[in-house]
Write a structure and sequence with these properties.
Blueprint lengths: L3 E4 L3 H12 L6 E4 L15 H5 L10 H6 L2 E4 L6 E3 L4 E4 L2 E4 L2 E4 L3 E3 L16 H10 L5 E5 L3 H12 L3 E5 L12 H14 L2 E3 L4 E5 L2 E4 L4 E3 L2 E4 L3 E3 L2 H5 L8 E2 L11 E3 L4 E4 L6 E2 L4 H16 L11 E6 L2 E7 L6 E4 L5 E5 L2 E8 L2 H12 L6 H6 L8
Parallel strand pairs: 1-2, 1-7, 2-3, 7-18, 9-10, 9-15, 10-11, 17-19
Antiparallel strand pairs: 4-5, 5-6, 8-16, 12-13, 13-14, 19-20, 21-22, 22-25, 23-24, 24-25
Helix pairs in contact: 1-8
The protein binds flavin-adenine dinucleotide (FAD).
């Protein structure tokens, strides 16, 4: 395939470069990222890093890895355009030619039009996390805009560090896009048990130096405000280059965009889910890394290889590890098992399994969902929803 250029040196971009070498690609690889330093993992930014401040532990590989594998890493380089006809990209007036281009540009924080929002801090990059960590000491009252995974992970850490924490969530329940109402309710109780003040159905209308104003007229005093209200995919490069986009760079099951010389992966890609064919965009380490492995295999020779892995995800909040196998729609039906696992169904077919501190059930669910044959509600009910039927 020749020279592979990867735009975005995050979780997926790094994995694409590494997997190309493991798959035997002998040509040049250029890995270009807008952020400074070596590629790193983001999940600890809202968890361990806030407590420890250990940056080296975040690195995906040391500098020697990139040298040894002849991966030309270009940090602090923002790609500004793609010239598809000439097969090259541009940064700071410089052109870089590619034989194959991989878009791994991820997402950025969604910034709703809230007056005063510039006062709020972000938690997306290492630079954001450093700033947040430095700002925390001495701030007694902390407010979080958004009761999704990142907002809640941060809330639990901040509470443990002794801060008074309020979370404002516009939806009527926590993590509503991603989990069942049962799991939302359980996590609500857990966070309230920790002493986190959670306001549901409360959109933020203004951020001031004194705190946040909510739609119900309440005002929450805060010395520090964190914005964690979701993300938007970085698709401008693709859109301007005329690639098909729809809340993400549209790809086929092989993660190939509408241009056969360009692939897309991870948080910025929209792809058809195996089985249903539904177009989805996933924000998870697993999707980014499995996408990268799939693309590497395809570029090295297996032209028809598709991404067929079962999506899975985790979130650590206080002492609870939430794990989700599969992908449910917010409207999917849910059945709670006695041991706490929640099974999701669409038209009687298992779509996802949510577990808390139960790695065994999570692994069984992944195996079951990967089995190919759909697991039906009736047959699972006969076995008392025992997942270990494979
Ligand atoms: P990213 O890792 O975001 O990398 C994209 C990179 O592209 C960025 O570095 C960006 O600067 C760069 N870029 C963008 N545009 C350009 C350009 N024009 N030129 C050059 N570079 C560009 N997932 C889980 O599965 N479990 C978790 O517990 C979890 N926790 C998380 C906690 C936090 C605080 C955050 C922020 C994310 C978390 N995630 C978690 C999500 C996970 O980190 C992402 O899904 C994953 O990083 C996606 O990988 P990616 O390669 O698609 O994008």
């Amino acid at each position: 395939v020749g020279h592979v250029v990867i735009v975005g040196a995050g979780q997926g971009g790094f994995q694409a470069a590494a997997s190309l070498r493991t798959e035997g690609h002998g040509g040049p690889i250029t890995l270009i990222g807008a952020e400074p330093g070596l590629p790193y993992q983001r999940p600890p930014l809202s968890k361990a890093y806030l407590k420890s401040g250990e940056e080296e532990a975040l690195q995906l590989r040391p500098a020697s890895f990139f040298e040894k594998n002849c991966i030309d890493l270009m940090p602090e380089t923002r790609i500004e355009g793609i010239d598809r006809t000439a097969a090259r990209i541009t940064a700071c007036g410089r052109n870089i030619a590619y034989d194959h281009l991989v878009l791994a540009t991820g997402t950025r924080n969604l910034r709703p039009p809230i007056p005063g929002l510039e006062r709020a801090l972000d938690l997306r990059t290492l630079a954001d996390a450093r700033k947040l960590r430095d700002a925390l000491p001495g701030k007694r009252r902390v407010a979080v805009i958004g009761g999704g995974f990142i907002g809640l992970e941060f809330a639990a850490v901040a509470r443990r560090l002794g801060h008074e924490v309020t979370v404002a969530e516009a939806a009527p329940r926590l993590m509503s896009r991603a989990v069942s109402p049962e799991i939302s309710t359980r996590f609500l109780a857990m966070h309230r048990g920790l002493g986190v003040d959670i306001r549901l159905g409360s959109a933020v209308t203004e951020v001031t130096d004194e705190g946040i104003a909510l739609t119900d007229g309440a005002f929450v005093d805060a010395d520090l405000v964190l914005l964690a209200a979701g993300v938007v995919p970085n698709i401008e490069l693709a859109t301007e280059a005329g690639l098909a986009t729809a809340n993400g760079v549209v790809t086929d099951a092989r993660l190939l965009t509408s241009d056969p010389a360009i692939s897309a992966l991870g948080d910025c890609a929209v792809f058809p889910l195996t089985g249903s064919g539904r177009l989805v965009r996933l924000e998870s380490v697993q999707a980014a890394t499995d996408h990268a492995r799939t693309i590497a295999k395809r570029l090295v020779g297996d032209r028809e290889v598709a991404y067929t892995a079962v999506p899975w995800f985790w979130s650590d909040q206080a002492d609870w590890k939430l794990q989700i196998a599969g992908l449910a729609d917010p409207s999917d039906e849910s059945v709670s098992r006695d041991d706490g696992a929640v099974l999701r169904f669409a038209d009687g077919v298992l779509t996802a399994v949510e577990t808390v501190n139960d790695a065994k059930a999570h692994m069984q669910a992944r195996k079951l969902l990967a089995g190919g044959a759909s697991a039906r509600r009736d047959s699972l009910a006969e076995r008392d929803y025992d997942l270990a039927m494979v």
